[in-house]
Structure formats: structure tokens, C-alpha cells
């Protein structure tokens, strides 16, 4: 029998809690019980993502083995903490040599992001084959599925397991914290909520 995935277990748990809460509400209304402990129970899945961080060695191995056209994607992700979809649409015109100014698609938030020395070096050296920063081997903008496929193959080639492109957001939080950047500043800059930061 196949073991259920974490997502399926969480969904089943929430459904069971909901049904149990309804039963207890019925009992409470008929004074069979004094309180309903399921009222305002909050979320069941309050886990953290501290184990979903790219190590320095993971990043270095990826940059050693991945195709060169994926290097800038790695450096943008780990230095800005932005979502994949936003980075795939990021225009060169958003970069002024010191900051990247962008509006996040998910939140609508306007986000000015200071550029680190390492990222500035990579951006300044990159060829601008398109108005969009990140391009594939043909110099064309990525589709999300095309990028995900190429990224997945590159991580397998590098022998990296257990982390995804999305986990580079958390890695960016940790990297900035190690560098002494205050959490509140990170929230203001890469557009990451306090709730997200607390997961790391």
C-alpha cells in the first residue's frame, strides 16, 4: 500500500478536525459538553522550513556543474529572495547598477532590492540578449515549465537532493541574517513577510 504524501496527510487531518469540530458543536449546543476544544484551533501544519536550506556547498556545486545560462538565475534567487515567476519576468531596465526595482506579481508590492557585490559582478558581465534578464540557451525568455525542467536536470546532475528553487528564498533569509541584515530590513527589501521569515 502506498504511503500517503505529506500534503495528503495534512489535508486528511484538516478534514477530520473539521468533522470532529462539527460533532462537538452539536454536543455543545445541546449542553452535552461545556466547551468545544476545536473552536479556533488554528492550523495543524505549523512546521518550519529550516531543513529546506541550500548549503554553501550545494550552491557551489550547482554553479560548477550547471549550464552557464542557469548561473544568473541562481545568483538572483539567492541574493534577492524573490519568487521564480518574478525573476523569470525581471527586466534589465529594473536594474540601475545599484538596485533592482520590481513589483511582485503575487503581492503587488513594489520592492527595491540592494544588489550585492557578487550579484552586481554577474549582472554587469551578463550579455543582454533580451529585455528580460533570464534567458535559455537560445537567448529566449523562459517559460515556467521550461525553466523548471532545466533547473531540475541541473540539480540532479549536481547531485543535489531535498531542496528546490523555491527553497532559495529561505536560503536568502539565512544568508542575509548571517551577514547581519536585520529581519525587518529583509522584510522591507525582498518583500518577504514576517511569517515567512519565522519559518527559517
Question: Can you put this structure into words, describing what you see?
Answer:
It is a single chain. With 200 residues, the protein is mainly alpha-helical. The chain is built from nine helices and two strands, in the order ααααββααααα. It has helices at 6-29, 56-65, 71-80, 84-88, 117-125, 144-157, 167-178, 183-188, 194-198; strands spanning 99-103, 110-114. The radius of gyration is 21 Å and the shape is elongated. The model is unreliable at 1-9, 182-189 and 196-200 (pLDDT under 50).
SSE-based structural type: mainly alpha
- What percentage of residues falls in helices of 4 or more residues? 40-55%
Number of domains as seen in the coordinates = 2
* Arrangement of strands in the largest sheet: 1-2
Question: What's the count of strands?
Answer: 2
Please identify, by name, the CATH architecture of the largest domain: Orthogonal Bundle
Gap between N and C termini: 34 Å
CATH topology of the largest domain: hpI Integrase, Chain A
Q: Tell me, what is the CATH class of the largest domain?
A: Mainly Alpha
Low-confidence stretches: 1-9, 182-189, 196-200
CATH superfamily placement of the largest domain = Intergrase catalytic core
**Main beta sheet strand tally, sense and closure:** 2 strands, antiparallel
Provide mean pLDDT, rounded: 80
Q: What letter string, H or E per element, gives the SSE order?
A: HHHHEEHHHHH
Task: Please tally the helical runs, counting DSSP H or I stretches of 4 or more residues.
Answer: 9
Q: What's the overall geometry?
A: elongated
Which value, in Å, is the CA radius of gyration?
21 Å
Amino acid at each position: 500500500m502506498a504511503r500517503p504524501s505529506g500534503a495528503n496527510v495534512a489535508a486528511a487531518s484538516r478534514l477530520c478536525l473539521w468533522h470532529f469540530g462539527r460533532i462537538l458543536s452539536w454536543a455543545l449546543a445541546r449542553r452535552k459538553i461545556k466547551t468545544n476544544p476545536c473552536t479556533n484551533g488554528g492550523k495543524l501544519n505549523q512546521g518550519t522550513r529550516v531543513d529546506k536550506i541550500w548549503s554553501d556547498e550545494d550552491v557551489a556545486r550547482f554553479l560548477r556543474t550547471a549550464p552557464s545560462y542557469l548561473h544568473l538565475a541562481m545568483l538572483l534567487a539567492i541574493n534577492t529572495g524573490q519568487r521564480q515567476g518574478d525573476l523569470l519576468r525581471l527586466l534589465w531596465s529594473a536594474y540601475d547598477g545599484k538596485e533592482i526595482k520590481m513589483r511582485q506579481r503575487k503581492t503587488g508590492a513594489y520592492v527595491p532590492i540592494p544588489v550585492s557585490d557578487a550579484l552586481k559582478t554577474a549582472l554587469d558581465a551578463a550579455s543582454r540578449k533580451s529585455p528580460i534578464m533570464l534567458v535559455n540557451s537560445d537567448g529566449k525568455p523562459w517559460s515556467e515549465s521550461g525553466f523548471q525542467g532545466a533547473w531540475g536536470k541541473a540539480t540532479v546532475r549536481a547531485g543535489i537532493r531535498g531542496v528546490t528553487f523555491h527553497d532559495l528564498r529561505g536560503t536568502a533569509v539565512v544568508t542575509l541574517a548571517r551577514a547581519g541584515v536585520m529581519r525587518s530590513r529583509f522584510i522591507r527589501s525582498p518583500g518577504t513577510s514576517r511569517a515567512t521569515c519565522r519559518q527559517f
